[in-house]
Design goal:
This protein has one helix and no strands. By secondary structure, it is mostly helical.
Length: 67
């Protein structure tokens, strides 16, 4: 009878530990996804800035060629 109680307690504790661990892993995955999204935004901003600079340089070259 004591063995069954110990087994039940062990199963309950193990289940609680598993759910806590799953919660921690979920938080880590969500945090990583947010970090990756921020990187993608900053990368997109950098590409947009670079394209704008290229367009300005292209316009200057066209003006100089037309002179």
């Amino acid at each position: 009878m004591k063995d069954i109680k110990k087994l039940k307690i062990c199963i309950i504790i193990s289940t609680v530990i598993i759910f806590i661990w799953l919660g921690v892993l979920t938080l880590l995955v969500v945090d990583h996804a947010n970090y990756t999204e921020e990187l993608n935004k900053s990368e997109a901003e950098m590409h947009s800035f670079m394209i704008g600079e290229i367009n300005r340089l292209h316009e200057r070259v066209e003006i100089l060629e037309n002179k």
